[in-house]
Amino acid sequence: MRVDWNERIGGIKMIEIRDFLRVHGRHVSKSLVSQRLSVGEETAMIIVGKLLSEDFVAVEDEDRGERRYKITDKGCRLASTRAVKRIDRHEAVPILHRFHARIEAVNARRDLIFFIREVRLFGSFIDPLATDYGDLDVAIDFQDKSRFNGDLKGHCEARADLHGRFLYGWHAVKYCKEEVRKLVAARDRYISVSCMVTLERIKAPSEPFYIAPDKVDDLTTSEHASAT
Description:
Layout lengths: L7 E2 L2 E2 H10 L3 E3 H7 L4 H13 L3 E7 L2 E6 L1 H8 L6 E2 H19 L6 E9 L9 E2 L2 E9 L7 H11 L7 H16 L5 E5 H7 L3 E6 L9 H7 L1
Parallel strand pairs: 9-10
Antiparallel strand pairs: 1-2, 3-5, 4-5, 6-8, 7-9, 7-11
Keywords: DNA-binding
Organism: Hyphomicrobium facile
Protein name: Winged helix DNA-binding domain-containing protein
């Protein structure tokens, strides 16, 4: 997403508005804007109106007499956009090559409970008219390995416990999925990771980047035991 970080809405820089949306990931209101951005009610209404007109938020409902706005998919993309120097295609391609190598390295590991089944590129990188990029948008489909299907939560709880994280149920499952995401993202400031569900919801054009070979999920329990 191309963002002019010097643009101001009601005197507030876009980067501050981005940070506000990051913290309040689902709903916002005029009073919340006023409180968190330290502006008056009139300025807060200007900011909300601009976010509404640009489709960063949409009217949802009222709570205790105040209108609430849900953050849209476009608003979520703004929240995840990094304020980094834009790069051209010559610089972007090696970043994607390294990202691809990390995916293959992660999928080769026997100890991880999830693997990456598919990755798709979307956003400005696949736009033939774009000449530079603020980030490289990728959508990832995570899949648990079939040998864990019988007791996925139990295996995830054990792995979280191994790392000193005492989590249970779906919290442990989320932890193990996030472990894989962090490994492939590797804190690369240009790689912006979304889940495949988000890509399907926003119906953005996309192109295949990686599809896991069948052998990734072929490891038997005995192979896993010998590898660890």
